[in-house]
Specification:
The chain has 151 residues and is mostly helical. It has 6 helices and 3 strands. It has a 3-stranded antiparallel beta sheet with strand order 1-2-3. A hairpin with a 4-residue loop joins strand 2 and strand 3. It holds the Pfam family TUTase.
Length: 151
């Protein structure tokens, strides 16, 4: 399918790769790899860290050069933060539960509550408390919620 000149121009790098020296091309490729690990080149030098060229957005650290960035990527802290970020991204990508799924969870919770000896009246009281607390939380923390638990 033919592309318009504007579409092609948007996908093309600002500087053609053939115009770059081998060293510049290697630097560009290294920085593209760093971006996947949440390490960005500093656009503006920080007065606190004048010799640092990069920043890890995940770990909130400044990094002096590419070698330091590669060393940082191998650190336990960064690996842990990457794993947590990937898990967070996976959770955000999940679709919301369907009405059928919600009903099934509700039925399972009620069945466990009955097995554990909680009365329907006690369950209603707890449900009311959760609802009231959730209203308070939502007023102070947008997007906050509570879940009824037997713990």
């Amino acid at each position: 399918m033919p592309q318009s000149g504007e579409d092609a121009a948007q996908r093309r790098p600002a500087v053609e790769e053939r115009d770059l020296t081998e060293q510049q091309l290697g630097l560009r490729q290294a920085e593209e790899r760093l971006l996947r690990d949440y390490i960005h080149r500093l656009v503006k030098q920080s007065p606190e860290y004048p010799n640092y060229q990069y920043s890890c957005k995940l770990c909130s650290v400044h990094i002096e050069n590419i070698q330091g960035a590669h060393k940082h990527i191998k650190e336990k802290r960064h690996k842990k933060n990457i794993t947590e970020k990937q898990e967070e991204n996976e959770l955000w990508a999940l679709p919301p539960p369907s009405a059928t799924q919600l009903k099934a969870v509700d039925a399972a919770v009620r069945e466990v509550a009955a097995q554990q000896g909680i009365s329907e009246e006690d369950f209603k009281v707890r449900e009311t408390v959760v609802t009231r607390m959730e209203e308070v939380i939502k007023r102070h923390l947008a997007g906050g919620s509570l879940q009824l638990s037997s713990l």
